[in-house]
Amino acid sequence: MALVSLRNVTKAYPPAERGGAPVVAVDDVSLEIEPGDVYGIIGYSGAGKSTLVRLVNALEPATGGTITVDGREITALPERDLRAVRLEIGMIFQQFNLFNSKTVEGNIAYPLLVAGWPKPKIAARVAELLAFVGLADKAKNYPDQLSGGQKQRVGIARALATSPKLLLADEATSALDPETTGEVLALLKRVNREFGVTIIVITHEMDVIQSIATKVAVMDGGRVVESGDVFDVFSAPKQASSARFVSTVVKGVPSPAEVAVLRERHEGRLVTLSFRDGDASQASVFLELARAGVEFELVYGGINDIQGRAFGHLTLALRGPDASVQAALAAVADRIDVTEVA
């Protein structure tokens, strides 16, 4: 059974002007998020992804549809019952949202105080989490004495305090530099692997999804336009919105303008070879070209790795007798996709 299930969920806000149409931020979204998933939700600014996450933890009510979290349908629950549901959902934020007047340990302890835990149990839990996120020596520090990465580690520890089954990360790395982003993502992987916490990652950064997520949904205009395993969506996007995102981290077939530049710089016939995990290897394809007496030069593209599975597109300039080039391409075309560059 899915840990989080959204069925035909809609969120509309009142019109900006009298007599205008409602502003639809989330439009008929259906998703199933299984226990143990790291589920990425990606989209450009205004796509509706942050609104969607606020619906999941019931910070805002849905206009239509149903949302079920851990077997409880939350869309019709009164506020007093929603408080108990939220204890099962941790949240980390882009700007950390720490209490500047509280120490690191005070920030982590806060949700436990709200939940009514006894003080000895709180102290033990805070110590455990500080050790887990690598901040045991910062317990007495205040947020303004910490780096951005350390603040986000405190945010993760606080989100884990009540042992939630679900963790929501809303643009959790957007305020961090690339090195710190990698450290925080590695920590989230540990949270998922060691605690079995299901994570929903809201982001506009494709490399974050590539690094951590197992599944992804692409949002555009409030709707989910494509969803599935990260590898499948990245290696063969079916929608234009998805392809635009993928192109930010994966070089595909060169554009007409790029082709014009390539033709100026390189002689020969331009073809793009598309490799996907399970297809023929690069080595075997290059060997086939060499056996046919075809010279080749890599002029565009690259190979990407998503959690141990490789895919990518390589554009080559091929030189040799036309018959030899054609025979070599025919020999590999049944094992990989070959695209003639126009």
UniProtKB/TrEMBL annotation:
Entry's Gene Ontology BP terms: amino acid transport
Domain of life of the source: Bacteria
GO CC terms in record: plasma membrane
Molecular function via GO: ATP binding; ATP hydrolysis activity
Alphabetical UniProt keywords: Amino-acid transport, ATP-binding, Cell membrane, Membrane, Nucleotide-binding, Translocase, Transport
Annotated Pfam families: ABC_tran, NIL
Domain ABC transporter, chain residue ranges per copy: 4-246
PANTHER family: AMINO ACID IMPORT ATP-BINDING PROTEIN, METHIONINE IMPORT ATP-BINDING PROTEIN METN
Role description: Part of the ABC transporter FtsEX involved in cellular division. Has ATPase activity.
Quaternary structure and partners: Homodimer. Forms a membrane-associated complex with FtsX.
Family: Belongs to the ABC transporter superfamily.
Protein name from the UniProt record: Methionine ABC transporter ATP-binding protein
